[in-house]
Every structure is written in C-alpha cells, then in structure tokens.
Specification:
This protein has eleven helices and 13 strands. The protein is an alpha/beta fold and 303 residues long.
Length: 303
C-alpha cells in the first residue's frame, strides 16, 4: 500500500472518531467529518457532511482527496436501531456502502468500524474466523454493511470493536461517563453480571485501527486482554475513582427486557491484533491501569 499521508475520519464528533482523530493527528494530515455537532481537535480540519447524501459524500471526496478513509460514523445504540430500523439501515448500511464505493473509485483503502455484536454470544471467544450470527438489528446491519462493502471494495479493512471506554469530546460519551455520574451521585447503577465483553480504551482502539490501516489487514478484532462482566467492570471503575461502589446493583441481563436482544458473551480472541506490529503493535494496558490514566477518571476521582 502506498504511504498514507492524509486520512479522512467520519464520525469525528463521536467517541471513537474523536479518539482516532487525536491519535492520527500526531503523524498524519487529518480531516474530521461531522454532521450535527462540530468538534475541535488540535491539528484536525473539521468538515460538515451528511453521509447519507451521496452527492455530499462525492463532493467531500473530490474536495479533500484523502489517501484513506476511516469510516467510524454510525448509529450505535442497539435499542435505538431496533426501534428505528429504517434509519439504522440508512446510516449503518447505506452510507457505509456509498463510502466504500467512493473509496474504490478513488483507489484508496477504506477502514470500516464494525462490532462484536455481530455474534450471538453462544460460542466465545470470537476470532476473525468465527461465524457471525447477530441477534439485534444493529448487529444485522453492521454485518450487512461488512459484506456489501466488501463487494464494493476489495481493499476494505474491517475493524471489529468491543465495548469501548475512555475520554470523550463534548456531546459524546463512552460507556463509563454515565457510570461515573451515577457513582459520584450515589444513584443506583444496575449492571449486568451475565454479560461479558473484552473492553478496550478509545486510545488503544485508535492505535489498533491505525495499525490495521498501516498493515492493510482485511479483517481484525481489536478487543482488550481481559474478559469481564459489566458489573465487574463497574467495580473496577469505582476502584479507579476511589468511589464507594455501593450504588452498583448486580442484575441479570437474561431477566431484563430491552428493545434489542443482547448476546451474553461476545468476548474477542484478539491474538492476531496482539501479534501485529511487534513492540509498536496493538498493546492495551491492563484494565485498571487504563482506567486510572483517563482524564475523565482523574477529574472525578474522590480525594
């Protein structure tokens, strides 16, 4: 692959897109694309675009002429996707396939951000060779996008992501910001004891995605090293904050009614990612260390 010097990142005002922009700006020219919420990242040029409008996407590509595109924009709340199926398809499938086609036409690589929720949670841990079987509209649409984008672009790079946490820009959040607010306010925080993930920080995720682009991998899982339940993740966060964890209420996912079904265990086998790039590769810190390093944790920490 030719050296990438200029990268276009969609979803720049969202949690993951913002983290990718911050990391990529350390060595590349970065164009951060947003829709409704402008975002400022030092060293990043922000541009507005409705990615569901093909003409706007075409104009954006012609004006910016990137060497690669990282498509991180998405409708990511599974319950919202379940209740608004048409909107989910338009954003999570339609826009993604258009971007893949435009990248193919331009002869540049396209990185697509997918999810661990394309799996049903029955046979973890999941590697790149595992057979997808989504149980929600969000998972279905992400898998549909993977396959349709691959048909449009043979240089597609698919990065499947787990539960992610970390610092976030104004107007966006990861899974931990609501947890921090609840713990500091001593308000009830129900967390599942029977839902397992391999969470990764936004900074580690961004590093892994850029490494996948550099190495031109076709498909990669970028999970953390630790399999953990939502509830135990909450206890680990409380310890990092120095907060009382009494507000955490262990509950069972299997007994909780939600619009979207949730798989019980979509833990990743990320051995491929851990072995990619040697000492400069994908190397997430232990969960407690990663949490303790976050600005959102430091600023809320109890003295």
């Amino acid at each position: 692959m030719d050296a990438v010097k200029k990268v276009l990142v969609t979803g720049a005002s969202g949690f993951l897109g913002w983290n990718i922009c911050r990391r990529a700006a350390q060595s590349l020219t970065v164009i951060g694309v947003f829709h409704s919420h402008p975002v400022t990242v030092p060293g990043v040029t922000g541009l507005r675009c409705d990615l569901t409008d093909y003409r706007e996407c075409t104009s954006l590509m012609q004006r910016t002429r990137p060497d690669a595109v990282i498509h991180a924009a998405a409708m990511v709340n599974p319950n919202q996707c379940q209740e608004h199926r048409d909107e989910s398809r338009r954003i999570n499938v339609g826009a993604a396939v258009s971007i893949a086609g435009l990248c193919n036409d331009a002869g540049i690589p396209c990185v697509f951000i997918s999810t661990d929720l394309i799996f049903d949670g029955a046979s973890p841990p999941y590697s790149e060779t595992s057979e997808p079987s989504p149980v929600s509209v969000y998972g279905e649409h992400k898998l549909e996008a993977e396959r349709a984008m691959r048909r449009r672009h043979d240089r597609l790079i698919i990065c499947r992501m787990p539960l992610m946490f970390g610092d976030a820009p104004p107007g966006a959040q990861s899974c931990i910001q609501p947890m921090i607010r609840a713990l500091r306010g001593r308000t009830p925080l129900p967390l599942f004891i029977d839902e397992y993930r391999t969470p990764v920080s936004g900074t580690a995720a961004a590093a892994g995605i850029l490494l996948a682009l550099e190495k031109s991998v076709s498909l990669i899982h970028l999970g953390g090293r630790e399999r953990i339940s939502r509830c135990d993740f909450g206890y680990t966060l409380a310890a990092a904050l120095g907060a009382d964890n009494a507000a955490i209420l262990p509950v069972r996912q299997a007994l909780t009614r939600m619009p979207a079904l949730r798989p019980p265990d979509v833990s990743f086998d990320s051995a491929m990612a851990f072995g990619l790039g040697g000492c400069r590769g994908f190397n997430p810190l232990p969960l407690d260390e990663e949490l303790a390093s976050l600005e959102c944790v430091k600023s809320y920490a109890v003295c």
